[in-house]
Structures are given as structure tokens and as C-alpha cells.
Design a protein that fits this description.
mainly alpha; MetI-like fold; 2 domains; globular
Length: 290
């Protein structure tokens, strides 16, 4: 047997090769729609309509991206999206980590009752109208904070944080308390700086949620404060309405819509791979006991 044959026989079995082939096909099926949007965003519209299917970009143009920044509402929308994501994710990480840490402490009073309080919203919600009326009653309606404060905490990530902190070495915290630090000081000085996997996981998940959100933004704030996702949804909705009326010649070009979508996709594609290893570690820590 040749050296190359022994290499493949030792490292790859037919079953492993089949699994890799299936995973490669699934990867292409899931990834190609993202690349197709990017292709369409940089493809001249005349080239796009010339053929029904494009496997690769046919030509190149940056015209649609230039038009995005010429549209005042869209340019403002992207600025609001960035501000909403950065501020919202930062506050959400702090609040969620603090809540998870508190629930993980055995000495916390009414811990079980508080756990139930956080479990209930995972399965039941008040509905759109009560939520809207609540935001209006507390004075957040039509303000930037209406898109942030009501969404600072997701119960699922509180329980992920709780599981993470329950596995945190109690000896370290107890030694800090013996030296005179309180629970708050121990959390901020010791636990927080050494919980990078969890914090990165929360930042990615909350950041993605804030970046992609569009439904509540369209209900809770005026169009002047809409993020880019809300403007994109409105453009697509208007296109569908006009198409239903047979006014296709007045529609926004599909390439322009793809360019706006690409501007929303690219940041996620850049940031997520950089933090992926922290995300996997942060979710897995505390998932298995023993």
C-alpha cells in the first residue's frame, strides 16, 4: 500500500467522507442565499434581468450602495441601527449577567420564585396591544429608548448565565468575600473580568437580535427613528403592494433592495466568525454536569 493510500485509510473512513459530503452540500444550500444577495447588490440591474438564474455576479457596480447613502432616511436608519445595537447589546449584557449571577447564588432569597418569574415569559406573552399600551404608559413611546429598554433581558440568556455562574469556582468568590469584598465588588472585580466566553456569547446574541429587529421599531417609534431594517421592510412591503396593483414599472429595483440587505448582512458575517469560539464555549459551559 502506498503512503498516500495509508494516509487516507488511517484518517478518513467511507462513513466520514459521506458525512463530510452531506455537510458540504448543506453548507452550500444555506450559504448560497447570502452570497446571492451580495451578487445581486453589485450586479447591474440590466444584467440581472437578462437571465433567470445567476450562479456568479454578471458585471459589477457600486451604484446601489452609493444610492443608499444618498437616501437620507436610509443613511440615518443605519446610524440608528448601529447606535441601537451597540447601546442595547452593552446594557443587555450587563443586566443579563448580573441577573444570572444573582440567581446562581445559593444565599439569594426567593431564588425559586424569581426563577419562575423569568420562566413564565418564555412561554406566555401579554400580546401586542398590552405591550404597546405599557410602553405608552411609561412614557417611552416615540423615543429611542423604546427600542432598547423593553428588550434588555431575554429569559433564555438569563438561564444560560445562571448555568455558567453556577459552575464558577466558589472558592474564588468566597476568598474575595473573606478579604472584605461584598457580592457586588466580587462580581465586578473578579467574576466579570474572567467571564469572557459568557459575555462574548451574550454580546453576539443580543447584538444580532437588536441589529435584525424591525417589527417593534415600526410600532413604537416614528419613521424618523426607524432603524435600517424597518426601512428595508417598508421598501419591500411597498414593492409587494405595487406589484399586486400591476404597477411594476414604478417598483424599487431589486438590486437596490439587495444592496440594503447586504449592508445589514455584512456586519453580522464579519463579527460572528471572530467571536464564534467564545459563543460555543459560553453556551457549552454549564450545559453538562459532572
Amino acid at each position: 500500500m502506498s503512503q498516500r493510500s495509508r494516509f487516507w485509510s488511517n484518517r478518513w473512513t467511507p462513513g466520514q467522507i459521506l458525512i463530510l459530503a452531506v455537510l458540504a452540500v448543506l453548507f452550500l444550500l444555506m450559504v448560497y442565499p447570502f452570497f446571492y444577495v451580495l451578487f445581486l447588490a453589485v450586479m447591474p440591474y440590466a444584467n440581472y434581468v437578462s437571465r433567470p438564474v445567476h450562479l456568479w455576479p454578471d458585471g459589477f457596480t457600486a451604484m446601489y450602495f452609493q444610492e443608499i447613502f444618498k437616501e437620507r432616511q436610509l443613511a440615518t436608519g443605519f446610524a440608528i441601527s448601529i447606535a441601537k445595537t451597540v447601546i442595547g447589546a452593552a446594557l443587555a449584557v450587563v443586566v443579563t449577567a448580573m441577573a444570572g449571577y444573582a440567581l446562581s447564588r445559593k444565599q439569594l432569597r426567593f431564588a425559586r420564585a424569581l426563577t419562575v418569574v423569568f420562566i413564565v415569559p418564555m412561554f406566555f406573552t401579554g400580546g401586542i396591544i398590552p405591550f404597546y399600551l405599557t410602553i405608552q404608559a411609561i412614557g417611552l413611546l416615540d423615543s429611542f429608548w423604546a427600542m432598547i429598554i423593553p428588550f434588555l433581558v431575554a429569559p433564555i440568556w438569563i438561564f444560560v448565565s445562571r448555568a455558567y455562574f453556577m459552575d464558577y469556582p466558589t472558592e474564588i468568590i468566597e476568598s474575595a468575600i473573606i478579604d472584605g469584598a461584598g457580592q457586588v465588588r466580587a462580581f465586578w472585580s473578579i467574576v466579570w473580568p474572567t467571564s469572557t466566553p459568557l459575555l462574548a456569547t451574550l454580546a453576539v446574541m443580543y447584538g444580532t437580535a437588536f441589529w435584525n429587529e424591525y417589527f417593534w421599531s415600526r410600532l413604537l417609534v416614528k419613521p424618523d427613528l426607524w432603524p435600517a431594517t424597518a426601512h428595508l421592510y417598508t421598501i419591500m412591503q411597498t414593492r409587494q403592494v405595487l406589484q399586486g396593483l400591476g404597477l411594476g414599472q414604478q417598483l424599487t429595483e431589486q438590486s437596490f433592495i439587495a444592496a440594503v440587505a447586504a449592508m445589514l448582512i455584512i456586519p453580522v458575517l464579519i463579527v460572528y466568525p471572530l467571536l464564534q469560539r467564545y459563543v460555543v464555549k459560553g453556551i457549552m459551559v454549564g450545559a453538562v454536569k459532572g
